[in-house]
Amino acid sequence: MANEMLNVLKEWYGDKVESSLFRNSPIFGKIGKERIEGKSYNFPALAGFNGGVGGDYTKALANAAKTGATAQFAVTPGQVFGAVSFSAKEELQSKTNRGAFCRIADAKLFTSFDQIQKVLATALYGRGYGEVCRSGWKPASNVASGESVVISSLPEYAMMTFVPGMEIDVKSDITSSAVIVTLAITEANGNAITAIAKGAVTSAALATSNVLCVAGAMNGAEALLPMGLAGWLPNVAKRTGANWTSYVKTKFFSVDRSANQDALCGAYYDGSAVNEEKKVAVQKLLRKVRRQGSKADIILMNDEDWANMSTNLDTTNSYFTQTSSKAKKTINAGVAEMTAAFSTNFIENIIDDPFCPVGRFYILDSDKVKFVGYSNAEKALDTGIAGNEPGSKEFTEDGSASDKPYALLIDDILTLQPGTAGVDGPTTVVGINVYGSFVITNPAKCGVGNFYNTDDLQALATA
Known about the structure:
Blueprint: E1 32-35, E2 41-46, H1 57-62, E3 70-75, E4 78-87, H2 88-93, H3 104-124, E5 131-134, E6 148-151, H4 156-159, E7 167-171, E8 179-189, E9 192-197, E10 211-214, E11 218-219, E12 222-223, H5 229-232, H6 241-249, H7 261-264, E13 267-270, H8 278-291, E14 298-301, H9 303-312, H10 335-342, E15 350-352, E16 360-364, E17 369-373, H11 377-380, E18 414-422, E19 425-440, E20 447-450
Parallel strand pairs: 1-17, 13-20, 14-15
Antiparallel strand pairs: 2-3, 4-19, 5-10, 6-9, 7-8, 7-10, 8-9, 11-12, 14-16, 16-20, 17-19, 18-19
């Protein structure tokens, strides 16, 4: 065809906007959601016996007035915010599919919601400080403000959280309120990030043991993000030594948990120094939580740990092949032994979550885990994927924000307000407001464990 005739041809466009964003935490669909009001969410827990008991009634009677350990947790919700702006011009430019693949406001909101869900997934495995992983970063020379730096060899689970446009704080430890330097991520590839330093910092001020945290996760000494499993089921200092003793005596949502730690902090199995297969560590923690009354219907671990364990379990097919009626793995070898020991095949209950830190795993009772908050948690935690099925949320347009300009609160999660005036006209700022925390209403029914040779950030923490 003559080149000049190409001018009469149109370009053909697909009608779907693809989302290249990674998956979010599959556990969100498994836990309950509860809306609350007021200043805190309170619930009691019995952690000790009252009165006396024995074969001699007179001796039991003598102890009738004794009271056992009781506790009342008072949970104050944490918070996560997102904010995007769009101008009147952008709204008009993308009003229908004749002018755009989708409305600009919808695209911005979709990606902002996704990033909030990734921060919530990070918070699920933390203690509200925005902690992600150790940095492993010690530059040979000082870093100037505005300088581009590269942090490499980061764990894969951390790369699920780190995306271009995000800011992270470098701190000496998890609970420190002092930020050494803030980094603005410009690239995230493989196991490395490239970032711009938002301030000067000396090489001497940095150490490979520094912790990378979501920026703005603290207000002074106060943790702002939702409390996660690492708070409810702590493994600080591997639950041993003076650091653990100090930590467990510190009140957690108004409760001193030192009197009955397995009841108020959940069960713990430390396999970090025991060279054993991962399935053995899971079995040992499973035995503990079942003794403590758990139905143990959720086993959470990183997908890397699960891939390793599934190999040890001699799965019938490859890691990605589903072979059982419940769309999970089945195994040919070892089922009889495990069934005899635990009455159920725990393989069916495993959820491989890429946000879970490698080397740490949880066994939970789904009836005891929930997200409690003021906001619309169903919308905040909607990953668009059922259960632990593969895939990620597809992009969809949602008119809830742009159709109601300047509404105070939409769906109990969005706020709209006028932004600044610009060259292209006035802007609208959309705020995504998530107020809530992950709660375990009965820690005794749940547990946390560490696999062999772990470098788990929480297990190595001193406070």
